């Protein structure tokens, strides 16, 4: 199984409050990357946030040896040929440790970058974008004349497919259109932390659509973890967070998430309804799965709560539903990466395999017609 840990600001003991936040800067990111690598996680998710993920990933590469970098991208914000070139470069420098997370964001956020397409059309655009991407990584010279993109003689100069394997594509999106695009183009379909029962329904839907393209995907989930020595202590820790969730913080987050066009976000919000009950256990939406974090945090808002045994049992419930990739986090990222990394991770069969470095010889170059490379 793949177990990744999260890599994105803000962070702290309760980062929705200024006094619960810590500065997240280059020095701290280096600590995170080195800790995750040392502890034995498969990789780290670089989500789109305050820091640019490409700069961040490139800057952290020298501090890691085996950690894979799952870098989030919004289709269409960068020209497909340029994005493929950036990815091929990082893939070469990291010896195959790059993976991309294809995310379609939401209208508000993308509007700030000048992308004003409505929700469903963004996925039509992503379909074209990923078509060009696949052809570039197949080593083709791409002349493409679509509705959203036009390329003339696009080609990657680096020896993709020979020494540089195409980075695996992962994907997050829960709308109907999202399921279609993932079925057609990506390797791993991701969901935010819905219950094992809910995720199974989604997996079945993606699986059926992927089969229509003759494809098979892997499946993953993004969750928080609150693990302590006993179940009681874990719920106490959850309660400490819960007590810090004041009405102002909840109202601010609910306002932020209420006018999104993201179906995935609406599904997360439905798990708590934006209301804080007196007893935190009223937000236990499945055994050991707590939806309370979603009150103050947009996006992934559910946590597995319990002892190491309970956490492992809950991960097993997801595995039975078809999930074999877990992208986890705790607050703070560093301390909880250690806690989980020492109490649970060694008991899991974690994938730490590195892709085989392929041989790069002069003949690799001679075999390619470099006159056709896009940018020399
Ligand atoms: C595991 C996971 C990670 C995600 N990471 C990001 C991200 O880094 N940036 C972002 O804008 N959206 C991210 N998203 C959200 C998708 O962009 C989101 O689902 C999007 O709003 C598409 O909406 P849809 O559910 O309506 O298809 C992520 C979603 C999942 C499931």
List the helices and strands and how they pair.
Elements: E1 2-6, E2 11-12, E3 21-22, H1 26-39, E4 43-46, H2 53-60, E5 68-73, H3 80-93, E6 98-103, H4 107-111, H5 119-137, E7 142-145, E8 150-154, E9 169-172, H6 176-185, E10 188-192, H7 196-212, E11 218-227, H8 231-243, H9 247-258, H10 263-269, E12 284-286, E13 289-290, E14 303-306, H11 308-320, E15 325-329, H12 333-343, H13 362-366
Parallel strand pairs: 1-4, 1-15, 4-5, 5-6, 6-9, 9-10, 10-11, 11-14, 11-15
Antiparallel strand pairs: 2-3, 7-8, 12-13, 13-14
Helix pairs in contact: 1-12, 3-5, 5-6, 6-7
Residues 47-48, 72, 101, 103-106, 109, 172-175, 178, 190-192, 222, 262-264, 327 line the site of flavin mononucleotide (FMN).
């Amino acid at each position: 199984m793949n177990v990744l840990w999260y890599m994105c600001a803000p962070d702290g003991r309760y980062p929705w409050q200024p006094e619960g936040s810590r500065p997240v800067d280059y020095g701290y990111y280096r600590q995170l990357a080195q800790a995750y690598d040392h502890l034995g996680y498969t990789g780290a998710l670089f989500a789109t946030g305050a820091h640019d993920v490409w700069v961040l990933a490139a800057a952290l590469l020298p501090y890691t040896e085996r950690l894979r970098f799952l870098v989030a991208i919004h289709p269409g914000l960068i020209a497909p040929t340029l994005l493929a070139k950036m990815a091929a470069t990082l893939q070469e420098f990291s010896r195959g440790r790059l993976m991309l997370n294809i995310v379609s964001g939401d209208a508000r956020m993308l509007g700030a970058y000048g992308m004003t397409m409505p929700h469903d059309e963004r996925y039509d655009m992503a379909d074209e974008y990923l078509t060009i991407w696949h052809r570039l990584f197949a080593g083709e010279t791409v002349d493409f004349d679509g509705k959203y993109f036009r390329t003339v003689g696009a080609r990657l100069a680096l020896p993709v497919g020979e020494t540089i394997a195409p980075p695996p594509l992962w994907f997050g999106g829960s709308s109907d259109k999202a399921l279609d695009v993932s079925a057609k183009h990506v390797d791993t379909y991701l969901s935010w932390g819905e219950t094992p029962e809910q995720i199974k329904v989604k997996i079945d839907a993606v699986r059926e659509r992927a089969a229509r393209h003759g494809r098979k995907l892997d499946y993953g989930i993004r969750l928080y973890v609150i693990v302590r020595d006993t179940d009681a202590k874990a719920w106490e820790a959850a309660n400490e967070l819960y007590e810090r969730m004041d009405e102002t913080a909840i109202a601010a987050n609910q306002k932020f998430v209420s006018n999104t066009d993201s179906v995935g976000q609406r599904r997360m919000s439905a798990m708590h309804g934006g209301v804080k009950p007196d007893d935190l256990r009223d937000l236990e939406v499945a055994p050991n799965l707590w939806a309370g974090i979603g009150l103050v945090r947009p996006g992934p808002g559910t946590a597995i709560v319990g002892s190491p045994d309970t956490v492992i049992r809950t991960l097993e419930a997801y595995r039975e539903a078809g999930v074999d990739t877990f992208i986890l986090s705790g607050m703070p990222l560093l301390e909880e990466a250690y806690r989980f990394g020492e109490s649970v991770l060694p008991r899991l069969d974690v994938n730490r395999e590195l892709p085989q470095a392929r041989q790069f010889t002069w003949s690799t170059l001679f075999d390619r017609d470099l006159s056709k490379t896009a940018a020399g």
